[in-house]
Amino acid sequence: MNGLDEFGLIERLVQRVPSSGRTVVTGVGDDAAVLAVDPGEQVLVSTDAMVDGVHFLTRTMGFADVGYKAAASTISDIAAMGGEARHLVVALAVPEAARLADLEALYDGIALACRDHEVSVVGGDVIRTGGPMVVTCTVIGAVPAGQAVLRSGARPGDVVFVTGWVGGSGAGLALLLDGTPVAGDVAAELVACHRRPRAQLLAGAILREAGATSLDDISDGLANELNEISRASGVRLRIQATRVPVAPAVRDFARRRGEDPLRYAWYGGEDYQLVGTAPPFAFARALARCESSGVKLTQIGRVDAGDGVIAEYEDGRLEVVEPRGFNHFAPREANEP
Amino acid sequence: MNGLDEFGLIERLVQRVPSSGRTVVTGVGDDAAVLAVDPGEQVLVSTDAMVDGVHFLTRTMGFADVGYKAAASTISDIAAMGGEARHLVVALAVPEAARLADLEALYDGIALACRDHEVSVVGGDVIRTGGPMVVTCTVIGAVPAGQAVLRSGARPGDVVFVTGWVGGSGAGLALLLDGTPVAGDVAAELVACHRRPRAQLLAGAILREAGATSLDDISDGLANELNEISRASGVRLRIQATRVPVAPAVRDFARRRGEDPLRYAWYGGEDYQLVGTAPPFAFARALARCESSGVKLTQIGRVDAGDGVIAEYEDGRLEVVEPRGFNHFAPREANEP
């Protein structure tokens, strides 16, 4: 570790990330960060860990990508509550063989994600491990009291929606692993989806304000997230498969591989778009605000009484969508998209 | 992992820990926890990671001890700000060979620490790793706005104090590693200090209210923490070595080993007592409140103009106390107490 001790290393890495902000009273350097909360707000907290070789592969992602994605994917949990992301703390378990340049690149990726999402790093820990690198991010956000959008509020009659395009991250990973020949711009788009996902904070805030009844971010694939909303809300979600906004680059990629592009949307995961429900009038309001803000919002189905998730295909075929997503404890073959 | 998938495992483990509380609006199970903050409060956040083989050894600690200590040592950072600890999120990287019973024991230890410190678990992540276990805890606390006690407020003329007894954890580790023959009750006390440290939340709150000017918790040894206060405050700390409250069991243990008991206080670390400074009148006020609350508080020195930490011994000898503590990136021999 180039002669740097644990304390010198933390100080050196923290210098690379944004560490101040309106609500940072005391940031990195004391026993705990001190953070201001505006009157009438509640605090949001979520934590996510990523392990080298399980959640990321250094042959498909650079260290800056790993840092960016670790931060953005954690920040995404705040978007999924309709909240404002504010602060990040980062705990890094570092293998003995890690190079300082790699850790600096990782922190540069975290720094870029923080700037893109207007978040500051207010704490952290850097420790040595005899195993692979583990990056654990915890995000602190805020939401007007009583307005956090849970997964449990979907009601029959609601619209089911998704933000942005989906499937890109899973297709990007498949491309990085297999090297399917596609046009350069298609490849670049898919790889960027996989390496540098954006948390949908603006969309989340618009949807909360418009009156969304449930919200979730797509970390484990649309199939899994829809089932979570269905289960938490005690409703059936009826999805029109043709309406799912599979990215054109994913369609192109899947066509070349002779695959159904929808599988990347259902099971690919890590798109970090938002999926949720809203009464029709609230959805219309959200749609108008999204359009004027440049946010893509698509109705993909309806909420019915009942349970589970049903996909309706163009030919009239109905199919139960199982809650299968990327599950890190499942056998590897179950995770192939 | 006994056929449990990642999601089933999280649910099963979380059932073992306290998960509700006055300020928990929405706990584990959604994308993020929703937490209430009382008017006039600021939020405190700190994160700590522990790695098997580096920060704990399964030959000296059971999994319940590991869980207890991971939680308590993180909660201690809130005590060191004079705050009230409220919530914990736990990210666990689990080796493939881990047994479910071990993870349950780990969570039972976390649960006990949460009960002892009146903290609830509001989130977590459980992931697989190809390496050793990594436990990352993030604690959320609160403090009246503007009243967090930093390390930087010590002023010449202040009293330097420490809570409780020190040296027990380092001596407990040495005992567990070497098996020095000592009386059963001495051994039990030292081992308990090492395996089940308590965060000094009550003492921290009393010291904040009384007007302490700096505060730190003893994670890396008194030598290191005193130097942190000295550096952050730009003052010299003059310590009367005989006043340092080295636990009687540590004196007994060190005598049998022919060692200076003070070394366990200076360099042992992990006592999680509080060290800090206060003007004499504030110290007197704190002392009275501590006595009526059953909290041990000891003056060990004075703040002077200057820099560094100076120990004064009975024979008049003065010695600079270097900021050497347990440093996980330092060569192993530097960490022997």
From TrEMBL, chains A, B:
Domain PurM-like C-terminal: 155-311
Reactions catalysed, as given in the entry: thiamine phosphate + ATP = thiamine diphosphate + ADP
A single GO BP: thiamine biosynthetic process
Positions bound to Mg(2+) 3: 31, 77, 217
Function: Catalyzes the ATP-dependent phosphorylation of thiamine-monophosphate (TMP) to form thiamine-pyrophosphate (TPP), the active form of vitamin B1.
Entry binding sites for Mg(2+) 2: 48, 77
Binding-site list for Mg(2+) 4: 31, 46, 77
Binding site for ATP: 107, 124-125, 151, 219
Keywords, comma-separated and alphabetical: ATP-binding, Kinase, Magnesium, Metal-binding, Nucleotide-binding, Thiamine biosynthesis, Transferase
Gene3D superfamilies: PurM-like C-terminal domain, PurM-like, N-terminal domain
Residues annotated as domain PurM-like N-terminal: 29-143
Residues binding substrate, per UniProt: 55, 270, 326
Miscellaneous comment text of the record: Reaction mechanism of ThiL seems to utilize a direct, inline transfer of the gamma-phosphate of ATP to TMP rather than a phosphorylated enzyme intermediate.
Keyword Chaperone set for record: no
Lineage top rank: taxon: Bacteria
Protein name: Thiamine-monophosphate kinase
Gene: thiL
Family the entry assigns: Belongs to the thiamine-monophosphate kinase family.
Organism: Alicyclobacillus macrosporangiidus
Residues at which Mg(2+) 1 binds: 47-48, 125
Lineage: Bacteria, Bacillati, Bacillota, Bacilli, Bacillales
